[in-house]
Amino acid sequence: MKAFSKNQLQRYPVYLKFFKTLLEEGKTCVSSPYIAKCLGYSEEQIRKDLQAVSKEPGVPKKGRDLERLVETIEKFLGYRDSTTAVLVGAGHLGQALLSYPNFAEMGLSIVAAFDSNPALSGRKVGDKEVFPIEKLPNLLPRLNAHIAIITVPAASAQEVADAVISAGARAIWNFAPIHLIVPEGVVVENVNLASSLAVLSHRLNEMLSKE
């Protein structure tokens, strides 16, 4: 199986959104130089990325077929196969994710949420019911959810991770600001808001210092 770097994988959703926009504008083909001009990636990088997921070469002076590119990248990212997930931690961030309307386009279906706050139990957020955290071990296997989205405070995140893994989760999308320790065979993707903000602030300061 071909190995993909994290940075490379993160570029494919950017390509996909861009290609869909071009299709909506009535375009049928796109070239690597044009993608590079619009997205700021190098032409060599773009060619390598697209060749890694598509065996069809581009046509000289025309580029690649946009519909085929969209289809290929969606299949590669799993957007055409619905993946079931549960969310643990129905606070402000959790509720925002539960209400996000575009996950379905990405093949992600959040079917339920869990929280330790009794005031949230039985409520619906974004049409998703919030269950008491105590019900997670029994409900998660019945929901056939392979992904657990963790949006709890850092102090609770490892305990929650242990619980969802014990209940059968094979992947964790972690929004808690903590490094999770998981056994082999469980995939973790960390969303580190502090790191993203640090990168943004540093790049902004660099830009301002040059003005």
Protein architecture, described:
- It is a single chain.
- Helix content is 45%, strand content 18%.
- The protein has 211 residues and is of the alpha/beta class.
- The strands form 2 sheets. It has a 7-stranded mixed sheet.
- Strand 7, helix 7 and strand 8 form a beta-alpha-beta unit.
- Helix 1 runs antiparallel to helix 4 (66-77) and helix 2 (32-39) crosses helix 3.
- 25% of the residues are buried.
What order do the helices and strands come in, and which of them pair?
Layout: H1 6-24, E1 29-30, H2 32-39, H3 43-53, E2 64-65, H4 66-77, E3 83-88, H5 92-98, E4 108-115, E5 124-125, E6 128-132, H6 136-143, E7 147-150, H7 154-166, E8 171-174, E9 187-190, H8 193-210
Helix pairs in contact: 1-4, 2-3
The largest sheet, given as strand count, sense and whether it forms a barrel, is: 7 strands, mixed
**Element string (H = helix, E = strand):** HEHHEHEHEEEHEHEEH
Extended strand count = 9
Give me the side-by-side strand order of the main sheet. 5-6-4-3-7-8-9
How far the N terminus sits from the C terminus, by CA atoms, comes to 46 Å
Low-confidence stretches: none
Strand content: 15-25%
Report the average pLDDT across residues.
90
Quaternary structure state of the chains depicted = single chain
Please give the count of helices.
8
Secondary-structure-based class equals alpha/beta
Roughly what percent helix?
Answer: 40-55%
User: Looking at the structure, what is the overall shape?
Assistant: globular
What integer value in Å does the Rg equal? 20 Å
